[in-house]
Design goal:
Strand content: 15-25%
Strand order of the largest sheet: 1-2-3-4-5-8-9-10
CATH superfamily: Aldolase class I
Number of strands: 10
Largest sheet: 8 strands, parallel, barrel
Helix content: 40-55%
CATH architecture: Alpha-Beta Barrel
CATH topology: TIM Barrel
C-alpha cells in the first residue's frame, strides 16, 4: 500500500449544486482559494450543464478563469455531454470529468438518454479533445440506483471494460451516488475493476454518507487499492437526480481518518475546518460530517495523532 492518498475536493460543484439560494461567484472563488491554501490540490470547481437544470452552476466559466490563477491547483470540471465538453474547453478547462450512469434509469433521469448513447458520446468527446486536456470518468450509480436498487457487479464491470477500452489513460471514479453502498460491495467492485482493466491510469472513489457509511466505504476502497478519493468540505452535497441522496462524505472526516492512520493527505486540518464550517453555514446548504463538531468540542483543531506518534512512543 502506498503511503499517501490524493483527495479531490468536490464541494464547489457537487456540494453547491443542490443549494437553492444563489451563492455569489466571488464567494465561490474565495472558497476555492481557501481550499487550495489548506492543501487541496485537486478541486472540482463547477460543471458545464444547463443553467435551467442546475442554476447554481451557471458561472462555471468564471470559476475556470479564476482557478487558472491559483498556483499549484489542478481544477476539474464536470461535463455530461460532448457538447458541454466543447464549451468547457473553450472556456479554458483542461481537466474534464465526464459523467454517465451505470444504471439506465438514472442515466435517463440525469442526462435523458440510454447508457449506450452516453458511451458513444464519450467516445466522440475523446476524439475531439485537444491533447493537453486530461479526462476522468465519473461512473454514477456504480453500486446502487435510486430507481433500480442495488447494482450487480458483472454488468457494471462490463460497462467499465467498454469505457476503459476507448482510452485507458484516464482516471475512472466509482461513484456511490445514493450513499447505499456497503464496504463489501465497494471492495468487490473496486478489486474486480482493477483486475479487469489493469491499464487504467488511476481509480477513484466517490462516497456519499446517506446511511453513515461514507468513511467505511472509503476505507474499503483504500484497502482494495484505490488512492484517489472525492469528498466535500462540510459534508455538502446531494444529487438533484437521485431522490433521497444526501451529502458527500465530509473532507474533514476523511482527512482526520487517514491522518489518524498515519496516511498523509497533504491537507492541513486546522485550516480546513473553518472553511468547512463556513460552507456548512451557507443558506440552503445540507451539511454533514462529524469531525467539525468533535474537534470543536475539544476547543481546538489539532492534526490527528498519526503512526509517527506510536513509533515515537515505542522508541
Amino acid at each position: 500500500m502506498t503511503a499517501t492518498v490524493d483527495l479531490v475536493e468536490v464541494a464547489p460543484r457537487d456540494g453547491f449544486q443542490p443549494i437553492g439560494p444563489w451563492i455569489p461567484t466571488e464567494t465561490k472563488i474565495a472558497t476555492v482559494r481557501r481550499l487550495a491554501a489548506a492543501g487541496l490540490r485537486r478541486i472540482e470547481i463547477g460543471s458545464f450543464v444547463s443553467a435551467s437544470a442546475i442554476p447554481q452552476l451557471r458561472d462555471a466559466a468564471a470559476l475556470v478563469e479564476a482557478a487558472a490563477a491559483i498556483p499549484g491547483l489542478r481544477p476539474q470540471v464536470l461535463v455530461p455531454t460532448a457538447k458541454r465538453a466543447r464549451e468547457a474547453v473553450a472556456a479554458g478547462a483542461r481537466f474534464l470529468v465526464y459523467v454517465l450512469s451505470a444504471s439506465e434509469a438514472h442515466n435517463w433521469s440525469n442526462v435523458r438518454r440510454p447508457v449506450a448513447e452516453s458511451a458513444e458520446d464519450y467516445a466522440r468527446m475523446l476524439d475531439a479533445l485537444p491533447a493537453d486536456v486530461a479526462v476522468r470518468i465519473n461512473l454514477a450509480t456504480a453500486f446502487d440506483c435510486p430507481f433500480d436498487g442495488r447494482m450487480a457487479v458483472p454488468p457494471v464491470l462490463d460497462l467499465i471494460g467498454r469505457l476503459a477500452a476507448l482510452r485507458p489513460d484516464v482516471e475512472i471514479c466509482l461513484c456511490d451516488t445514493t450513499g447505499r453502498a456497503t464496504p463489501d460491495h465497494v471492495a468487490q467492485l473496486a478489486s474486480a475493476a482493477a483486475a479487469r482493466c489493469p491499464d487504467v491510469a488511476a481509480w477513484a472513489y466517490h462516497a456519499h454518507d446517506t446511511y453513515g457509511l461514507g468513511l467505511a466505504t472509503t476505507y474499503a476502497a483504500y484497502q482494495a487499492g484505490i488512492r484517489v478519493f472525492d469528498a466535500a468540505a462540510g459534508g455538502l452535497g446531494g444529487c438533484p437526480f437521485a431522490p433521497g441522496a444526501t451529502g458527500n462524505v465530509a473532507t474533514e472526516d476523511v482527512v482526520w481518518m487517514f491522518e489518524r492512520m498515519g496516511i498523509p493527505t497533504g491537507v492541513a486540518l486546522d485550516a480546513l475546518l473553518p472553511i468547512a464550517a463556513d460552507v456548512a453555514a451557507l443558506p440552503g446548504a445540507s451539511a454533514g460530517g462529524r469531525a467539525r463538531a468533535a474537534l470543536a468540542s475539544r476547543g481546538a483543531c489539532p492534526v490527528p495523532e498519526a503512526a509517527g506518534a506510536a513509533a515515537k512512543a515505542q522508541a
